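Please, is this right?
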Amino acid sequence: MEEVDKIIIHSLNSIGCDIDDEITSLKLFNTDMIVSTVVRCLKVINSDVDLPNTLPPGMSARFRMGASLANCVQDVGYTGELGYQTFLYSSETEIRKVLMFLIEKLPKEASHTSEEPLGASVLLQRAISAKVGQQILSPWTPPHLKDRGITWRGKPPVWQREGSSCMHNYHACHLCIPEGIAELTRKIPKDVKAYYCHSLPYVTNQTRRFQDTAPSVIEMNATEIAAHQESENEWNHSGLASRLSQKEFRAKKMDKIRRMISDRLRQDSHAADSSSDLDTMRDLQQVMSAISSQTKITTKTKGSRFAHTEKLLFKQDESKTMEQIGADIPTRDTEEEQQKKREEEVETLKKEMEELTSRLEALDMEMKKFTASQAQMAEQVLTETRKTQEKESNFRVKKQTLDLLPDAENNISKLQALVDASASRLVSLANQWEKHRAPLIEQYRELKSLNSMKESEAQKKLVEIKIFRARMKDVAADARNKEEIAKQLHSEYERITKDVNRSAYTKKIMEIVSNIKKQKQEIDKVLVDTREIQKEINLLSGKLDRTFIVADELIFKDAKKDESVKKAYRFLAALHENCDQLIKTVEETGVIMREIRDLEEQIEAEQSKKVLANLQKISEDFQQMKKENATMITKLKSK
């Protein structure tokens, strides 16, 4: 910070502030010097500022001046917290921020432009530089648009656009492009290759208009990127948790989609079959067409009883309608006769329509009755078949028992022998199962413990992967922000005019850079040492875990046979727990040491704010305010 303070003091002296050579840092600035330097900077930035360079003797006037000074600094563009206490009871960091902001706001060429002679060459150079800078900052436009009248005028960030040509709406079309040609591992059929080579049109020929080519390509690229990002997000959220490979996960997803589509189609087909066709058959023409189609189908096939009855019912109506249609021969009658005929035809058609609807309703009711009776008969058939099967099974059992009755004693002895043999077989099988059961149970427990350990490790790895991905995203976002900031700073640096008399700045900057390089080298050394130590810690912890596992397995095998080995196994487990506790205590001590260092740094920062000195100043000012108030009260009483 000393180098920064020297630069600030040098820049303040260059604008006319009278600072002694003995003062080399902002710690030595008192209240009067702070106020005078800030007022001088504000007057150089804005000549309309009318503030005294020194503080008045009265405390109330001092507070008013501090508040007005803070308002002037905020009007210039300072966004930090600012008030009268910043200048009257100042801290080093706050004053450094304010002075750095004001120095950045100072006009760069204020002292040089007044001394330069404004000749024709100088004016020409300025005009050329301004035009070149404007063209560099202006957005790029194609040459044919420049020739036809599009120009950009104004200064950033406000641009004015004049004229327009070759403008058209944004319209995109679907494009078909070859897939999988760039992938060497993917095999493409010959027919597809031939289609890509000979039949597939170019992208420029797939759109109706030439202007739609670029929007179509942009939209296709955007949809592919969005689909890729969506698949990656789905894989990161649900794919990793499923513990399947990407191919298996996608195949499972495709099967799920197919099942959903098939279920939806089945539901729609059932709904279409169950819905009645009465709503669609309301119109007379539709009814007649449906009846004629049904009669044609029934004439071709043998037909059922219901089809024959329907044919007989609707045959007369068909003949009537055909006669009416044939009778409608165009004859030249009067309008009144035509109107009467039309009304009569409408009435007859309405009557026929009502008769047809009533017949259709009756037929529908009969159809429902037939279906209900059919369902009842099917249920009765099922019940009767079940009863017959039960009776047949009972008949077989009774028949076998009746066949065994003539020689009952021999059959009973045979059955007893079979029962004894089956009992002895069951006992032997139980003994054999007990022999096989014990090792299988032990193996099952071991496999279960290994599986639980693997699952816990897999969950930890999933958590670590998610944490690393989140960190990668954060780092990428930070890198983008830093790149944008670097671009902005670079553009600002290019805009700034370089002063000639900056040798002192360059020397100090080079010294600061060299110090930063040294600090960076030391930091890199410390980081390398910490990495090596971390690697050693990881190696030792891995060795410790492996040795404990090996010792645990060896002692556990012998612990089943010997009691002393059991004690050794217990001691080994206790030793491992104690070692873990020691490692945890060491880590906790490291964390506590870091917290202590942070607290010490915070204490140093609070000490640098001069809290005690400011409290003493505030108490002194308070006492002075009391005295001033007392004198003012006495004067008022005397008057």
Observations:
- The chain has six domains: 2-107, 123-162, 190-273, 277-400, 407-496, 501-608.
